[in-house]
Amino acid sequence: MAIEKQIRLTRHAFDRYCQRVAPIGWQELERLVSAGIGERQPKDGYLQTGLTWWRAEETETEIILHTCYGDTHIDIPAATKWAKRFRDRIALGADYAGKA
What we know:
Order of helices and strands: EHHEEEHH
Strand content: 25-35%
Distance between the termini: 50 Å
Largest sheet: 4 strands, mixed
């Protein structure tokens, strides 16, 4: 029997979700994330809910979402490892819009 963990959304994660995915209310996002997690657990500090990637931390009682990388088909954990290895960065959503 799995123990349901509390989802804790940081202000930074909320702000990044609104910036990179869509503006949404805090409680609505908490419900959306809780429904999207299901049986998923953070792996290597990352969590994917639907198309949305999060930087997450798991404790005994909760899952803390620290930041939102946005909706993407890209494997964010692999991409960040690549970026670190080559001393590069990943441009995400609105952060990249209009930049060449």
